[in-house]
Specification:
alpha/beta; seven-stranded mixed beta sheet; two-stranded antiparallel sheet; 13 strands; disordered C terminus
């Protein structure tokens, strides 16, 4: 989809001409509408929810908690004497295996109480020997765990933090998951090896359920599949997950309603529709066996076709990028992954012209509100639909007319350029972005620069500024700041490597 506008551009002889450019409408799979009410009948929906919250939700919560407590007790008994390492190395057998299955059905009972009374199942789940790996997609909700329960229950690949959740962690341990630390690149390599060891083992392991997207999305597209499930080169069975409900009370993405609000809204529904479809087993050809990335792409395309949604090149790393931008208090943090893509399309990621603009006597004490024609001239890029879309990312609702604050654009671009480096490198550029000739005055130092980096109170920052401005000139340099803070524990975060950045960008799971 595109929105079309007339833009006035300067020609080579100074005469203005009119040109039409289209701004592409971007659908980010990690963002969802924060409105979780029935837009057509919102008043009725709210009244119904209020009544069910009083009459039904408390009963459901109590019953689910009783079942959860019962399941936890059984799980505690079932894996008593086993460490996580034991559970990773060999499957449960005998009465422990039967108890594991029973706990799975208790979980199914919890979903029945929670509104998923009936699940429509299409296709047939393959035997573990025929397809040792199940691939669930799209991954969008806490409800997706129902797929794990109804598939055996199967083992899962999940984030290590889940194993530390009170009550729930012990139940996850009993499912004998393969844990991955998504922040640790080395852990990802170990996870791949764990998957290989398990699916190629002669032991009687249940099938392993993997959600190859690696994080929750809004189901508008299938994001890039991680390659961990495809490294073994063994047959896999795709599993499609659908929620054909009028009101979306369960889609849980990086940005959207809080999970507790979604659980409440789901519990306040009479019924939640869930569909699970087992597609035929996908047997890789020789080329796919040699190239896990190709294997992943082909399965992603197959599943997107069956789901009737497009594929996209978004990844879990986009979530981490936006999350880091939010922590840095960037104004357009939610758009940063799209900004990154369009800068790459235009070639700005290669030229990094924004850094040169800031370094060349940029007067940060002046306003830089630019129209599109000035924007492309500053960046020395063609005026086309791609550059216009990049421009529109920074048009704020509070701005008057179709203009952007160019300093905001430069700040976001510098964030991307310096993302792999310690924060002090970005701060160094911001001294030039908001200062003049590298010198920064007190007000922008406190309100425009330091707010992005440290949780230090303004009065402390003011005190620091005045202590550095020994000659009372009203401004300080980056070197002044650096020499005063490099050994100060209050500013230590500025000098640490960025652990959110992975040197190896190849899919490792």
């Amino acid at each position: 989809m595109f929105s079309e506008e007339d833009i006035k551009l300067e020609t080579h002889n100074g005469v203005k001409r009119s040109a039409k450019f289209k701004s592409e409408v971007i659908i980010n799979p990690f963002l969802r509408d924060k409105n979780y009410w029935d837009k057509e009948n919102e008043l009725f929906d709210k009244i119904k929810t209020a009544i069910l919250t009083v009459l039904l939700v408390p009963i459901r919560v109590v019953c689910m908690f009783i079942l959860l407590l019962f399941a936890w007790c059984l799980a505690y008994i079932g894996i008593y004497g086993y460490t996580r390492e034991d559970l990773k190395l060999r499957p449960l057998k005998g009465w422990r295996r039967k108890l594991r299955t029973f706990v799975g059905w208790i979980f199914r009972g919890m979903f029945v109480i929670g509104s998923a009374h009936y699940v429509k199942i299409k296709g047939k789940r393959a035997d573990p020997k025929e397809a040792p790996i199940l691939l669930g997609a799209p991954h969008s909700s806490f409800f997706d765990s129902l797929t794990v329960v109804l598939s055996g229950p199967s083992c899962v690949v999940g984030k290590i933090e889940a194993g530390d959740i009170p009550f729930y962690g012990k139940l996850i341990d009993m499912a004998q998951p393969i844990y991955v630390n998504r922040e640790d690149h080395n852990s990802r390599q170990l996870t791949i090896q764990d998957i290989l060891n398990r699916v190629k083992s002669n032991d009687d392991w249940p099938q392993t359920m993997i959600f190859p997207e690696g994080t929750c999305t809004n189901r508008t597209s299938l994001i890039q599949f991680k390659c961990g499930a495809f490294y073994p080169g063994l047959p896999i069975q795709p599993v499609l997950i659908r929620y054909p409900n009028k009101i979306d009370t369960f889609t849980w993405t990086w940005s959207g309603p809080d999970v507790l609000l979604l659980i409440w809204r789901t519990l306040a529904q009479f019924h939640t529709f869930v569909e699970i479809e087992y597609l035929p087993v996908y047997v890789p050809n020789e080329e796919e066996k040699k190239d896990p990335k190709l294997y992943a792409q082909n399965v992603q395309r197959l599943m997107s076709k069956e789901l009737n949604i497009p594929t996209s090149d978004y990844t879990f790393d986009d979530c981490k990028l936006m999350e880091n931008a939010v922590r840095t208090k960037l104004l357009f943090a939610e758009k940063l992954s799209d900004v990154k893509r369009f800068r790459e399309k235009i070639g700005l990621a290669q030229s990094q012209i924004e850094e040169y603009i800031v370094k060349e006597n940029f007067k940060g004490n002046e306003d830089y509100y630019l129209e599109f024609s000035e924007f492309v001239q500053r960046l020395k890029i063609p005026a086309d639909n791609t550059s216009y879309t990049l421009f529109k990312f920074f048009v704020s609702e509070s701005d008057i007319g179709d203009v952007i604050d160019f300093k905001e654009y430069l700040l976001h671009a510098l964030f991307l350029i310096k993302y792999s480096e310690p924060k002090i490198e970005l701060l160094k550029m911001m001294f030039m972005l908001y200062g003049e000739a590298g010198r920064l005055h007190r007000e922008p130092f406190v309100n425009n620069v330091m707010k992005h980096f440290v949780k230090v109170k303004p009065d402390q920052l003011n005190k620091l500024f005045y202590s550095l401005d020994v000659n009372n000139v009203g401004s300080i340099t980056f070197n002044d700041f650096y020499n005063a803070t490099k050994d100060d524990k209050n500013f230590a975060i500025l000098y640490k490597p960025n652990r959110n950045f992975r040197q190896n960008h190849k899919d490792s799971q």
